[in-house]
Amino acid sequence: MPLHDVPVDSRPREKLLARGAAALSDTELLALLLRTGTAGRGVMQMAGELLQGFGGIAGLLHATAGSLQAFKGLGGSAKRAQLLAVLELARRALAQQLAERPLMDSPQAARDYIQLQLGRRPHEVFAVMFLDAQHRLLTLEEMFRGTLSQTSVYPREVVQRALQLGAAAVVLAHNHPSGAVQPSRADEALTKSLQAALALVDVRVLDHVVVGPGQSLSMAEQGLL
């Protein structure tokens, strides 16, 4: 039913103001963001279909502009822009958190940040989180794309960038679009190669994080570093 026909006690905005955001369901929060539905399809229904289509909030946060445009009711630019802005705010909030305190104080935040950046990419991406001497985030940079191997990821370029930024440590990261996050033998060999190259300039490799849609794996926690 249209949002204005929903009883006042159940309307997302009134419910949020009266009880706090935590009292709202994912569908209600998304309906507040969308504001309106489409002809014959109320905003609550649209929000529910959007969550179902993208696999919940986590999936929606990894949506791209193209995938949102393909969803019925998001062909216009305004709603897509709102959703993409929420995604970017989430990324910036995590980046700020990692820049303000040592990475090893919040390893889950680091994995969440990498997940937001790389988790839903349709192709493989290799990225590096460059850290200062206190292990706070300087920047995360995507450095290589395509099938990853020792021949497609160049340790010299990673070393050069670490020196340019004055990094003291790094966290390596890449995605598996297939969804399986178990590192391959090639991933392990690549990690060893980068460790050796970076050690020559006194830059530590703290971890290598592998992400896929909705999940992540720390090679350090698996004893693979």
TrEMBL record:
<keyword id="KW-0479">Metal-binding</keyword>
<feature type="domain" description="MPN">
    <location>
        <begin position="103"/>
        <end position="225"/>
    </location>
</feature>
<dbReference type="InterPro" id="IPR010994">
    <property type="entry name" value="RuvA_2-like"/>
</dbReference>
<dbReference type="InterPro" id="IPR046778">
    <property type="entry name" value="UPF0758_N"/>
</dbReference>
<dbReference type="Pfam" id="PF20582">
    <property type="entry name" value="UPF0758_N"/>
</dbReference>
<dbReference type="InterPro" id="IPR020891">
    <property type="entry name" value="UPF0758_CS"/>
</dbReference>
<keyword id="KW-0862">Zinc</keyword>
<dbReference type="InterPro" id="IPR001405">
    <property type="entry name" value="UPF0758"/>
</dbReference>
<dbReference type="InterPro" id="IPR025657">
    <property type="entry name" value="RadC_JAB"/>
</dbReference>
<keyword id="KW-0645">Protease</keyword>
<dbReference type="InterPro" id="IPR037518">
    <property type="entry name" value="MPN"/>
</dbReference>
<keyword id="KW-0482">Metalloprotease</keyword>
<keyword id="KW-0378">Hydrolase</keyword>
<protein>
    <submittedName>
        <fullName>DNA repair protein RadC</fullName>
    </submittedName>
</protein>
<comment type="similarity">
    <text>Belongs to the UPF0758 family.</text>
</comment>
<dbReference type="Pfam" id="PF04002">
    <property type="entry name" value="RadC"/>
</dbReference>
